[in-house]
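Subject: two folds for Thursday's group meeting

Dear M.,

Sorry for the delay on this. The cluster queue was jammed most of the week, so I only got both jobs back this morning. I'm pasting them in the order they finished. Each block is the input sequence followed by the predicted C-alpha cells. Could you check whether the formatting survives your parser before we put anything on slides? The first protein is the one we discussed after the seminar.
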Amino acid sequence: MRTVRDISSLAGVRVLVRAPLNVPLANGEVANDFRLRRALPTIEFLANAGAKVVVCGHIGRAPEETLAPVYRALAAKLPHVSFSAEAVGPVARAAAEALEGGGVLVLENLRRYPGEKGNDPAFARELASLADIFVQDAFDTCHREDASIVGMPTFLPSYAGLLLAEEVAALSEARTPAHPALAIIGGAKFETKEPVLKALIEHYDHVFVGGALANDFLAAKGYAMGASLVSRTDKGSIDALLARDRLVLPSDVVVAAPGADVSAGHTCTIDAIGSDEAALDIGPETSAALASLARSSATILWNGPLGNYENGFTAGTKALAQAIAASGARSIVGGGDTVAAIEALGLADHFSFVSTGGGAMLDFLVEGTLPGIAALD
C-alpha cells in the first residue's frame, strides 16, 4: 500500500483523513480515548509537514449523535484544532478553505448524511471536494462499504495512514503465526464468528471458544445449558468444528440467574448448570488451563470477552489478559471489551499489538483484506 510517507509534498495541501473516531462516551465526553490516541500519529505527521488536515469519521449508531466531544478530546491533545458543525456543504467548505498549514479541522458525524451509509457517489464527491488528497486510517470501519470508506478513492489520490499500515502488517502476520499458536475467540453470535473460527483452526494449534459463543458449542455437544444464551444456528456447522481436536471449550463456568448481579454467581462444571441458571463467565479451572496454553505459546491471538463483560462478569477476561501479558508470546488482541479490559488493568504495553478493530479485525483475519483497503488499490 502507498502510505502517507509516500506523499512527496504536503505543505499547504488539504488532506482528508478518515480517522477512527467512534469512541465510547459518558456524560457527553469521551470515556475511552484508545482509538483517538491511535489516530494521533497520522494527524500529527500530516500537520507537522504543513498539511491542512480535515478529519472525518462517525460516532455511535444514531445519526443525531455528534462528534463535538471527540473534537474537544482532540483539541486537548493537538494545537490548532477547529470544528465544523457540518460535514459537507457551505459551512464545511468555508471551514476547510480557512485552514492554514498545520491546522486540523474536525467534521461533524458523517452518519448524519444518508449518502454515507448508502455509499452515494454524489455525497462522496461533495466530501472529496474539501481536499486534494485522501488518507484512510479508520481500520475499525474498513469492513464497511460506506462512502468515506470505499467511495473516496474514486475521487482523490488515496493513501493509507500510519495506523492502517500498522494494522495490516500485524494482522497479516497473525494469519500465518509462529507456532505453537493459540487463538481465543469470545463474544456471541456463532453466525458472525463461524468464518474466522474456520480460518483460525487451520493455522492455530489451539482455538479456544469463550463467552456466549461457547454456549452454542456446549449445547451442540449435548450439555443442558439452562437459561444460557444459545444461538439458533446450523448444528452441522458447529459439529464440523467440534470434530477438530484443535478446538478447546470451557470445562467449568460461572453461573447465575439471568440478570443477577455478579455477586450471585457461583462456579460449576459444564454438566451441572441448573435449569434456571445461565453460564456467564469461564471458571477458574478453565482460566488455569488457558494460562497454561498461553505460557507454552509463541503466538497468541485474542478477540472478544470470555464472559458477560458488560454486566460485571469480568474475572475470566481479566485473568486471561494477565496470563497473556505474562506469557512472553507475540500477542495480538482486539475488540472493544477486550481492549477495555487490558487498559483497565494497565496492561496494554505488555501486548505486542492492540488492534482498533473488532469486526474489522475478524474479517481481515479471514480475507486478508477489507473493502476499505482494497479500495486504495
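Second protein, same layout:
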Amino acid sequence: MAKKTVRDIDVVGKRVLVRVDFNVPLKDGVVRDDTRIRAALPTIIYLRSQGAKTILTSHLGRPKKQPKEGLVMDPVAARLSELLDVPVKKLDELTGAAVESVVQQMKPGDVVLLENSRFDPREEKNDPSLAAELAGLADVYVDDAFGTAHRAHATTAGVAEHLPAVAGFLVEKELEALDTLVTSPGRPFVVVLGGAKVTDKIGVIEKFLDVADDILVGGAMAFTFFKAQGWSVGTSLVEEDEGVAVAKRILDKAASSYCNLLLPEDVVVAEKAEADAETKVVKADAIPDGWMGLDIGPATAATYAGTIMGADEVFWNGPMGMFEVDAFAAGTKAVAEAMAQCKGMTIVGGGDSVAAVNGFGLADKMAHVSTGGGASLEFIENDGVLPGVTVLQDK
C-alpha cells in the first residue's frame, strides 16, 4: 500500500486542505469524546511546523443535507484549539467568498476549520462543482480521515481530482496495519466477528474464510447462525429471511474451507435486556422459549480466549454481547483481555469494539485500534480498494 504521505510532498508555506474525521459525539455543545480529534493532531502539528496554512474539513453527524444548529463545528474547533494550544478559526460556511477571503489572509501556521461538509447537499453526491470550489482554496489535498475513506464524497474523493493528493499520518498508519490482513497475515490468523447483522458482514466473512485460520463468531449475529441450523433461539435477535439464508450459505462454504468457523457453544440468556434481569447460562442449541441470548457463555469465552492468545495475528470487529450492560459484558471483556495478552499483532476494527477496549482500559494494549469500522471492513473485503485511498498518489 505504497501511497505518498504528507512527508513526500512540499507543503512549506502552502495552503493545505485536510479532510479529517471530526465526527465526534457532542453533549450540551461540548465534545464528549475527543479521540478522533486527537488522532488527527500529528498531521496538523506537522503541517504547522512546515509553515503550511491548514484548512480542515469534516462532516459531523447526519444533518440531512441542510444546516442543523446542534451539528455545527464550533465545539470541535474549541476543543481542537485547546489540544493544539493555538487559536483555530471556525468558519460559518464550507465554500464561498467569505471563506476565500479568510484563506487569503491566512499566515503560515494558521489553522481554520470549515463548517460541517454535510450541510452542503453536494457533498454526499460528490458533486464536481463542490469539489472544484474546495480545491480552489488550496494547493495540496491531504486525506487523514480513514473512517470516511469508503465513501466517494466531494471532500473524500472529488477534490483529489483537482489537487496533488496524499495521505496524512493517521491514514498512513491505518493502511500499514490493515494491509497485512489482506496481503500477508501472521499465522495462525484469527478473526473475531460480532455485532448484530450477518448481512452487514457477509463480504468480509466470505473473504476471511479464504484467508483466516479461525473465525470466532459472537454477538447477535450468532443467533442467526443458530436459526439457520434449526436451533431454538427463544426471543433472541435474529436477522430473519435474508440473514438466515446468508448464514446457511456461509456455513456451507465453511464446511469445505480449511478455515475453522466457530460458533458459541453456550450463551448467557435473560428474559429481558436489562441490567436487573435474571440470567442463566444455557447450551447454544437449547435457548428456552421466552429467553433471549445476550452474551457468549463462559465456556465459549474460554475457548475463544485460548484461540486468540495462540494467534500470531488477530482482527476483531464487533462485540460478543450487550457489553454496555455489566451482566452481559463478560464475553466481550474476555476477548479484549485475551487480545491484550496475545503476543502477536492485534488489530481492533473500529465501532463498538473500540468503545469496548476503551471502556475496559485496554486500548493501549492493542497493536492497532482502527478509527474506521465500516472503512476497515470494506478495505479488507475489497483488497484495499477504497474511494478515498485510490485517489491518493502512489509513491
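Two things I noticed about the second structure. The chain is about 35% helix and 15% strand. The domain at 185-381 is CATH 3.40.50.1260 (Rossmann fold).

Cheers,
T.
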